[in-house]
Amino acid sequence: MEDSYRGPQVCAIVGITYRQLDYWARTDLIRPSVADAKGSGTQRRYSYRDLLELKVIKNLLDGGVALQSARRAIEYLRDHLGEDLATANLVINGVHSISVQTGEEIVDLLRAGQGVLNIVPLSGVKGEVDAALHLLHQPKDDEATALSVAL
Question: What is the CATH number of domain 5-139?
Fold first, then answer.
């Protein structure tokens, strides 16, 4: 079974509040792909891919991109990149999103007179999520001390 993450873990990994995560799920910006909440007492479960998409959304919003533009960008990524999410750059030009694989493609866009609003290197997003996951899975100092004493 694929690793999955609960809401509080997702918030810690991505750097968002639970309120944001809940709002984004309720408004279908991003639904958890492993398990959606089905009434009281159930939990949403997010996949690694969901974490990447959430981190892209957060980075876009932190960069000043409007939520509606971030929504369109994520839809574009889902439709055009599939599993190659971490190998491209997302370029947002006004209301349009495109992906480019190389720096040369970005330069070509600029030469063609494109007014680039934001460039999101998705490989950086993957690195940020991986680092947060690593920290999440590290034993706390007290646990590490207890473990070394026990050995």
Answer: 1.10.1660.10
